From TrEMBL:
Amidase domain mapped to chain residues: 24-464
Domain of life: Bacteria
Cross-referenced InterPro entries: Amidase_CS (IPR020556), Amidase_dom (IPR023631), AS_sf (IPR036928), FAAH2 (IPR052739)
Pfam short name (any one): Amidase
UniProt-recorded name of the protein: Amidase
SUPFAM superfamilies named in the record: Amidase signature (AS) enzymes
Length: 483
């Protein structure tokens, strides 16, 4: 039997029943990677010797009666996470030989759960693209069409899952970096509520792994089923033991409902700042139809929805501010001069990002207060709805485009070109207020590419969109391996 595309849940059941060993699962995954990854280039750093040793340990532990959530399950890790003994580069050539001394918190939790880490997955330079390529490791190709992007910045992880290279992976997300690759590769991902998963050790080299949560960005799980997402989130979630973990334990509320017919859902397929391509709109409608068929209450508009233009602009300002903090002084002064130039279009997302990159502390505080007003609006909306269904981005996976300046790139949406960076608008809807969002497969485009949607839920109610994802998986189908 071939095990490579089964869920972690199914593999755990097989391990418990003695139908397979972790060593056999690990060997099969390694054989598949060595055979198929030459064309995909998802695994940029392999760790096969330690993986085999971990698999042997897992089999011995199970034989002695030990049980752990992911005992013996082969997984991969995004390159940006520190793994002791493996390079962490974030795609930056000057750090090609940088070796962290200790694991990231999320990685240590994976290991404590009994997972077998096969290696690390490819990323874009500095994690700042919806394509995963860099000078060190090259380009990751989409398993469905090697001429197209697998997404970014967790593109290597999504491509690995779609290719059967391990049952689970972990990634990160600030501009859709979990959700976008899941959408492009036809897998599942969950952007947790902001701060739910400790991010220490998911830091660009050579910065120390400090217990500091940067703004907007989160660490989260990727999988081939919705239930596996919840399983991996349970392993990853919880406060950092060096800070909030001293005084708090994690207790999340259960999903609001267990049946599709009990959910109240707001469905969106239009954004005021960017078009929605026909293939993505069809995916949203496919999910909406399944909700209606399942008896859910579905609305297409609500006066409670926060202003989406203001939300996107504020998101880009906050993201720019977060990125601007790491810019060298000389470059920062250049950006200050550019940001001071008049710009007639206040809704230009590139201009909003530029202004954010040179925010004063006063301006950031003002923006943060506006964010809290949006969070209040979302709380009011989620009193009437349980989830929001909307696109992750406007198109399926597009052709590789490595034009160095992102400002010069364009994204084609049904024959009309838009600025490349405007793809962030849909992802930012959940990111800016820190809401949980689950990416699910929603069918394929007319030319056979995967299409996904995101299910946005109430803050700290991550199990609500995860449960809805599980129910929709039963209704419309889930992951399918590329032909």
């Amino acid at each position: 039997m071939e095990w490579s595309f089964l869920s972690a849940e199914a593999l755990t059941a097989a391990l418990r029943a003695g139908e397979v060993t972790s060593v056999e699962l690990t060997d099969e995954a390694i054989v598949r990677i060595e055979r198929d990854d030459k064309a995909i280039n998802a695994i940029c750093v392999s760790d096969f010797d330690r993986a085999r040793a971990a698999a042997r340990w897992a089999d011995e532990a199970r034989a002695s009666g030990e049980e752990r959530p992911l005992l013996g399950i082969p997984v991969t890790v995004k390159e940006s996470y520190n793994v002791a003994g493996l390079p962490t580069t974030w795609g930056m050539p000057q750090y090609a030989s940088y070796l962290p001394a200790e694991d990231a918190v999320a990685v240590s939790r994976l290991k404590a759960s009994g997972a077998v880490i096969l290696g690390k997955t490819n990323v874009p330079f500095m994690l700042q693209d919806w394509q995963s390529f860099n000078e060190i490791y090259g380009t990751t190709n989409n398993p469905w069409d090697h001429g197209r992007t697998a997404g970014g910045s967790s593109g290597g992880s999504a491509a690995a899952l779609a290719s059967g290279f391990g049952a689970l992976s972990i990634g990160s997300d600030i501009a859709g970096s979990l959700r976008n690759p899941a959408h492009f590769c036809g897998v599942y991902a969950h952007k947790p509520t902001f701060g739910l998963v400790a991010s220490r050790g998911m830091v660009p080299p050579p910065a120390p792994a400090l217990p500091v949560e940067g703004d907007l960005g989160v660490c989260g799980p990727m999988a081939r089923t919705a239930r596996d997402l919840a399983l991996l989130l349970d392993v990853m979630a919880g406060p950092d033991a060096l800070t909030l973990g001293v005084g708090y334990d994690l207790t999340l509320p259960p999903a609001r409902h267990q049946r599709l017919c009990d959910f109240r859902v707001l469905v969106l397929d239009e954004h005021p700042l960017i078009a929605t391509g026909s293939a993505v709109r069809a995916g949203v409608n496919r999910v909406a139809d399944a909700l209606v068929d399942g008896g859910a209450s579905v609305e297409r508009q609500s006066p409670l929805l926060p202003d989406m233009t203001e939300a996107a602009t504020l998101y880009m300002q906050l993201m720019g501010s977060s990125q601007g903090a790491r810019i060298p002084a000389e470059k920062y002064e250049q950006l200050r001069s550019l940001a001071a130039e008049p710009n007639a279009d206040d809704q230009d997302l590139s201009a909003a990002r530029l202004r954010g990159m040179v925010f004063s502390h006063r301006e950031w505080i003002e923006a943060d207060i506006r964010r809290e007003l949006h969070r209040r609006s979302w709380r009011q909306l989620f009193a009437d709805f349980d989830a929001v269904v909307c696109p992750i981005t406007s198109v399926p996976a597009f052709a590789h485009d490595h034009t160095p300046d992102l400002a010069e790139r364009r994204i084609d949406i049904d024959g009309v070109e838009y600025p490349y960076i405007d793809q962030a608008a849909w992802a930012g809807l959940a990111t800016m207020p820190g809401l949980p969002a689950t990416a699910i497969p929603a069918g394929r485009s007319p030319d056979g590419l995967p299409v996904g949607v995101q299910l946005i839920g109430p803050m700290y109610e991550d199990y609500t969109p995860l449960r809805l994802a599980e129910l929709l998986e039963s209704a419309i189908g889930g992951f399918q391996a590329p032909a």
